[in-house]
Design goal:
The complex is a heterodimer of chains A (234) and B (365). By secondary structure, chain A is mainly α. Chain A has helices at residues 2-14, 25-49, 64-92, 108-121, 136-165, 170-175, 178-181, 185-216, 224-227, and strands spanning 19-21, 229-231. A two-stranded antiparallel sheet of chain A has the order 1-2. Chain B is an alpha/beta fold and 365 residues long. In chain B, 40% of the residues lie in helices and 8% in strands. Chain B has 15 helices and 7 strands. Chain B has helices spanning 5-11, 16-29, 36-46, 62-67, 75-82, 96-109, 125-128, 138-147, 156-161, 196-209, 222-225, 236-241, 251-255, 273-276, 322-354, and strands at residues 51-56, 84-88, 115-119, 132-133, 136-137, 151-155, 186-189. In chain B, helix 9 (156-161) links the parallel strand 6 (151-155) and strand 7. In chain B, helix 2 packs across helix 3.
Chain lengths: 234, 365
């Protein structure tokens, strides 16, 4: 399993090498493109649901909602294509690239480490463990609040987009069924917006945890997503 | 015996000579050649008009009120010339046992070849006793009548989705027709009521082409429910420009700006109001200055305010919408993060003050 392999790697290299190559270039590129797309999506999405104050002048001279929606749809395509690319990389990339797509739920050791991490975040453990990839708790959160949620956002998002694209469009053929399944267009709009809030709340936790662990667990996290190398400070 | 189209034409003063000329002309213009003319004449002379049984369940008759106001085609033409409306207890002259006998007669005589139009829906609680039709629960009459039908038309939000009588907690268990009847083609024509011309249009299509119109995933005719109100709204330009009425009496409302911020459900409602309009094309809700309430959408009666854009989410209670839940979650987690960071800093400071710490090495297996 992945965490065992991580541990062996860490033990083998940790003391001598002090740095391990974790995130390959496509994963790093995807991470930052995806982050940017998410910021654009959240901001434009917020203002599509609750529009800015009315602009003065002729309708023909303004295109505020038009540009907001364009930015939202463009960022959404980047987000969706990025996600597809990332799923592809989970198959061809190194074993760390698979982490956010599958949970080793049958592995007892993994679960005990999830609870160890929970105790660590609750200040019940004095010293943290080190991991080459995500720690098990982070992996669990990442799986549900990013991977599953992102797929949900893509499905609801394209379902809503299909309403404008029209009956018979490929968006309608692939995602149109989502609307009646979730109880109508209005409900899908609301759930899509709720998904945005959950995603943004997760971003708060993600950024905080990354900064905190960077400081507390004596291993690099933020620079790892830039360079790909995880450095162990002692 | 039900009149044929030929009988109707003759009754309206068209001579046999004109009728045969019409048949020849039709055959020629369809490129069918001269042999087809007598066949067309034969079909029009012998094919009986389709009988329709119009049933009324738990409803308010607004569908009938809408239907009788159709301008293109005129309702009188639909009812008196195009179809054979054999039973409609609101419009027919007969009453009592005589009226009820007609249903039996049509069922026997036109087995598998008549249309049932249902206005309203059957309530299922207490064995269907909340709606009695001719001394029996409506649900029984509905099931019996539909058993030998060719197709079923569900008029309005009641028959299609349940409408206000099915609003939570739905005490009578009012149930849409397609959840009671199975194995028959069912056409949903939602709206509260549907547009008159949409109703007569669906009927006309079925009689003219002798087949049901193409339906979407929710069983609605694509030709009338294929696009949203928003897609054809004449105020769409103001939406794209970002120009909204912010109050019912502000400058924007007077200038006819988009009603999106006033809770217009046009962007989430599939109907033909913005293209066909109402009352023979006189006006429609958005043109009169009020947003769409989404009356042709499933569950519109239970989906929160008509005047909010971000409406309440059903499982989370009446007062919660995506923004209140989201802001509460983000606020709580943000506060938790701040507290967590403070405790972390404190613990770290205390640890540093005590003894220089070393993190334990990861134990392998």
């Amino acid at each position: 399993m992945l965490s065992q392999q991580d541990m062996l790697e860490a033990e083998r290299h940790g003391r001598q090498v002090r740095s391990i190559y974790v995130y390959e270039a496509p994963v790093r590129l995807w991470h930052w493109v995806n982050a940017l797309a998410m910021v654009v999506l959240a901001v434009t999405g917020y203002f599509i649901g609750k529009p800015l104050p009315t602009v003065p002048g002729e309708a023909a001279e303004n295109f505020v909602m038009g540009y907001l929606r364009f930015a939202h749809f463009a960022a959404a395509y980047i987000f969706a294509v990025g996600l597809l690319g990332r799923i592809y990389w989970a198959f061809v990339g190194n074993h760390h690239a698979k982490q956010i797509f599958r949970l080793p739920i049958t592995n007892g050791q993994w679960w005990s480490e999830v609870f160890f991490e929970l105790r660590w975040y609750l200040f019940l453990e004095r010293t943290p463990k080190k991991y080459v990839g995500h720690n098990p708790m982070a992996q669990l959160m990442m799986f549900f609040f990013f991977t599953v949620l992102a797929v949900g956002m893509v499905f609801t998002g394209f379902a809503l987009y299909s309403e404008g694209a029209g009956l018979g469009s490929w968006q309608d053929a692939l995602f149109g069924w989502v609307i009646p399944a979730l109880g109508g267009s209005m409900q899908v709009h609301n759930l899509h917006r709720l998904g945005m809030w959950i995603m943004m709340t997760f971003v708060l936790v993600h950024v905080y945890a990354a900064i905190r662990e960077d400081i507390m667990s004596r291993q690099s996290l933020i620079s790892t997503m830039v360079s790909g190398w995880r450095m162990f400070k002692d | 015996m039900t009149e044929t189209f030929y009988d109707v034409l003759r009754r309206q003063g068209i001579t046999r000579r004109s009728f045969l000329k019409f048949c020849s002309l039709t055959a020629t213009s369809l490129g069918l050649g001269s042999a087809a003319a007598p066949r067309i004449a034969h079909a029009l002379e012998t094919k009986p008009r389709t009988p329709v049984i119009w049933l009324h369940g738990l409803e308010c008759t607004c569908c009938s009120e809408s239907f009788i106001r159709s301008a293109h085609p005129l309702t009188k033409d639909v009812v008196l010339s195009m179809l054979s409306l054999d039973y409609d207890d609101t419009l027919m002259a007969a009453a009592g046992h005589q009226a009820e006998a007609i249903i039996e007669e049509v069922k026997k005589k036109y087995k598998g070849n008549y249309i049932v139009a249902v206005e309203g829906n059957p309530p299922l609680n207490e064995d269907g006793m909340f709606c009695i039709h001719g001394g029996r629960p409506f649900v029984e009459v509905l099931k019996e009548t539909c058993a030998d039908a060719k197709a079923i038309i569900s008029w309005g939000a009641c028959a299609s989705y349940g409408c206000v009588q099915a609003a939570k907690p739905n005490p009578t268990r009012a149930t849409p027709v397609h959840k009671v009847i199975s194995g028959k083609p069912i056409i949903n024509v939602p709206g509260c009521p549907p547009i008159a011309e949409v109703m007569t249009g669906v009927v006309t299509y079925m009689l003219t082409f002798d087949r049901i119109p193409e339906l979407d995933r929710q069983g609605r005719p694509k030709m009338f429910y294929g696009q949203r109100i928003h897609d054809k709204c004449y105020r769409r330009g103001h939406f794209d420009a970002g120009q909204f009425a912010e109050a019912w009496d502000d400058e924007g409302a007077r200038k006819g700006y988009c009603l999106y911020k006033m809770g217009c459900k046009g962007p989430t409602t599939y109907n033909a109001c913005s293209s066909m309009r109402w009352n023979g094309g006189v006006s429609w809700p958005v043109q009169s200055g009020h947003g769409c309430i989404g009356c042709s959408e499933e569950g519109f009666w239970d989906k929160g305010s008509f005047y909010d854009r971000v409406t309440s989410i059903t499982p989370f209670g009446a007062e919660s919408n995506a923004d209140t839940i989201g802001k509460a979650a983000a606020g709580t987690v943000g506060a938790a993060i701040a507290a967590h960071a403070a405790v972390t800093a404190l613990a770290r400071a205390r640890q540093k003050a005590g003894e220089p710490s070393t993190t334990s090495e990861q134990k392998g297996e």
